[in-house]
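Problem 3 from the worked examples.
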Amino acid sequence: MPRALEFPLPEAALHALVRAALEEDRAFDDVTTIATVSPGHKARADLVARRNGVLCGVPLAIAAFRILDPKGGIRVDAVDGAALEQGTIILHLSGEARGLLSAERVALNFLQRLSGIATLTSLYVAAVQGTSARILDTRKTTPGWRMLEKYAVLCGGGMNHRATLADAVLIKDNHLAACGGDVGVAILRARTHAPKGMLIQVECDTVAQVKAAIAAGADALLLDNMPNHALRECVQLAHGHCWTEASGGVSLETVRGIAETGVDRISIGALTHSAPSLDLALDFE
């Protein structure tokens, strides 16, 4: 079993998030369960994988079951980052049947969403294996879930791009348009006004912009929607000056070819905005 990665939320924030999700679902007023299941009735259940994938979100699922049944038993059989096969048991649960039933959907929602991101990331990572390229996420995340979704990318073997607008300078096309379109001027302003030592990256759509960004001392290039032949040329130009990142139009079918151009990193918004949920289920014994 792999060692779990450090969960991104402190205990209090984790608990508050899960409780809010339970309250949203009215899990404390579950009319179906209250009407059909006797108080004190005990049950046992396994949370299992219905498909192969990569696991993420176990602490959130545990919290959901703990809040509904603080005295219930939970055996953890798989941790975040674990490779799942169909039928793998993730959690074995025992305790109040009412608690298990009322927490089920919230626990699965967290696990399925985050495991879907981890799983999709792992497919991209596998697709570029043997090249020097690393797979990165973007800021195209669900509002309020950014730290969780970026954590899921890590669980899938990817890397995190900047988490917030305050973490690094990334001069994009609209920034250039707003400051007159001169790449050199934009980089000079960033060097002057951004915190000392902060990374400065520039989005480039053309080879000419790449040459201008390198001449102005950019730390990194974001090569946006370039064909592979242009990526290769830009990688050669940037060699020894700055690192390169490809983005835009990346799919599982195209990512290998992009990686083979020699780019250092490939950022993919789909990791977080388009990952399908992983099929998991709670099976009562």
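Problem 4, a separate protein:
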Amino acid sequence: MARYNVLVVDDEVKMQRVLEIMLGELGHDVLRASDGAEALDVLGREAVDLVITDLRMPRLDGLGLIRELDARHALPPTIVVTAHGTVESAVEAMKLGALDYILRPFEIETVELAVTRALDIGRVQRENRFLRDELADGWEEFVGQSAPMQTLYQVIASVAPSTLPLLVVGETGTGKELVAHAVHKASGRTGLFVAINCAAIPESILESELFGHVRGAFTGASGERIGKFEASDRGTLFLDEITEMPAVLQARLLRVLQECYIERVGSNRRIDLDLRIIAATNRDPREAIAAGQLREDLYYRLEGVRIDVPPLRQRGEDIGLLARHFLARHAQRLARPVPALTSAALTALARHAWPGNVRELDNLMGRVVLLAAVTPAEDLVLRELGLVTAPAATPPPPGGAAPTAAAIAGDDESLSLQAHTDALERRMIETALARAEDNKARAARLLDISERTLWYKLKKLGLR
């Protein structure tokens, strides 16, 4: 179980201690405050994943605390503790933004269930915020005026208002998740946009990630947990790399699409949902069906509407716009000047085949900004695209000694920009993970990137 910071707010020291022991047994770190005013001080200096607060306290009570945090747009997932006679106040707290309430006296199982549910919801909300930060407002992040992109914009606008399942098809790095997020933004659905990469999660836990589970459903299931389906109720669930989903789960997904309800792992209780499912693949669906990686009946169910995302090589007139956009974004994040691209660099970018598509261009522009102080943008672009090579070693002067192997190796290393960039990323990621005690969400916040991007870099650098 992941370890979280939980703030307990109660004017009774005994109750603080009881909750501290219970939460400690669940593996969480506990902070304490005696009332809402003290809680605001704690929240001002500590990162808190969950607040458990009493309602009746001196100075600033539980409702006042929630109102103040909501006004600051800084309300973390919150559970209120209440006696039977003040349930109405607990309901009012939930209207203000609290996620749940616990009746006193309570059992440890009650606390565990409420805490697990609130932390799960909070985790999904954080992932959604990371996604919003990375994708801005969905439509605003689209950069491109080419004919293929104009067609894509029209398709998104036309299919967004419906609830039909969508299948987004495109090569790796073309922006399939960005398309799915734009559809969600334009749909007007009030729930969350929840994304899951079917290829990034081991088969043994993917079912629980999707459907959730109840306590005791399998070894290690010490509490109840909501899955991605429930988290995206009234919103949109994005299933990336759908062809990597195991066949048995594809069958269950087909049933969800047909019946619009789920059952958690280990439970037979029906949970009705209002879902909009968008799936994506970087493979030809017909080839995946022939290879046994995609059920044909699921394909027909998902392909209510198919959206094809054009590869970057078909968007030549957009490449310059995208390059400048990524330069400006990386420069802002790194607090660096925006490097200028010469006509030679722009010509080289336009002629490149871009096997990694928009993601490849984005990463290249990030390296240009990072190394602009030591390497001109044009030189770096040409070298990265393989259009120039490192200069040969200077021959020794007549009668002089030949350069040593160590000197040659040193010169080669100094010109290996990719190696230096990877080494710098590795050190920064390792430092962030150490400071965050291996909590990926916190490490991503320290690095100012999305958690999804962090997982991608961990895999790329072999740090998983």
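Solution to problem 4. The longest strand covers residues 78-83. DSSP finds 20 helices and twelve strands in the chain.
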